[in-house]
Design goal:
10 helices; elongated; alpha/beta; 4-stranded parallel sheet
């Protein structure tokens, strides 16, 4: 029995919006996306994957709003479809402009998009030449050019997902500690600033919880511990290692009264630092 793989959190979900009149061209594009699919980098979806008995309209919209990359397979039939325009195009462009997904038009057959809502979005293949046009030696060349660019977009989305996943892990650690030091470390190590306002509010809450009447407040203690750790690191790892090197060099010299006194002094300083 085949084991179904769990979808990776970083896998890019591609939604193909197309007219059934262009189903053959849609399938040709899906063939060229096969290596990305087998490499577990993408999951592609189009309406032929809707199971019998499903609410097809609800299913299409659900798949659409959960997609990372939306391909408009543009043709005269695509532009003339009221359903595609009122539902798929409008929803997709809302996702695109909000940064929740990326829309890329792919010109299948020659048509004018001057008065479309996606006219200003960079399309594929190169120069937005139709894949069925005379600019290409054959359709395979046109789709290859298209997929090369799609691959770059997929890699960019995956990198973004990995950064967000890393940020989520760092955030969970900060929330778990729920300390001033934990949130400050999060800010220091964060690659994005999406949670900056939340962190500031949490820091304000922590600070407001401290008793201002204490001669040394909990806030002071946390800052003192933080500074102590920094000093300990400098003493032990920096100065301590240099003293160890001096002691090692002294071992190489012939023993005499002065050198023995220096060795003893170095050992005493090392012990003091350790204490």
């Amino acid at each position: 029995m085949a084991i179904r793989k769990k979808m990776s959190n970083t896998k890019v979900k591609i939604f193909l919006s197309y007219s059934h009149a262009d189903e053959g061209l849609c399938e040709e594009l899906l063939k060229q996306l096969s290596p990305l699919r087998r490499s577990d980098l993408i999951y592609d979806w189009y309406d032929r994957k809707i199971l019998p008995g499903s609410d097809w309209d609800k299913k299409i919209k659900n798949e659409l709003i959960n997609s990372d990359l939306i391909l408009f397979l543009v043709s005269p039939d695509f532009l003339s479809s009221d359903y595609i325009y009122e539902n798929e195009i409008k929803i997709a462009l809302e996702l695109h402009h909000s940064g929740k997904a990326i829309v890329v038009p792919v010109m299948l057959r020659s048509c004018d998009i001057e008065f479309t809502d996606f006219k200003n979005i960079q399309g594929l293949p190169k120069n937005f030449e139709p894949v069925t046009g005379k600019s290409w030696f054959n359709i395979d060349d046109a789709f290859k050019d298209t997929v090369v660019s799609i691959k770059l977009i997929v890699k960019s989305i995956i990198n973004k997902k990995e950064v967000l996943k890393s940020e989520d892990n760092k955030w969970e650690i900060a929330k778990k500690t729920d300390t001033l030091d934990g949130y400050l470390k999060y800010l220091e190590n964060s690659e994005i600033s999406s949670k900056k306002d939340i962190v500031i509010e949490k820091l304000k809450r922590i600070i407001s919880d401290y008793n201002e009447n204490d001669s040394i407040s909990s806030l002071d203690l946390q800052l003192l511990r933080r500074e102590r750790d920094n000093i300990s690191y400098e003493l032990h790892d920096n100065i301590g290692s240099k003293l160890s090197m001096i002691h090692l060099l002294l071992q190489q010299l012939d023993s005499n009264e002065i050198i023995d006194k220096i060795k003893l002094s170095v050992s005493e300083v090392k012990n003091s630092i350790r204490q």
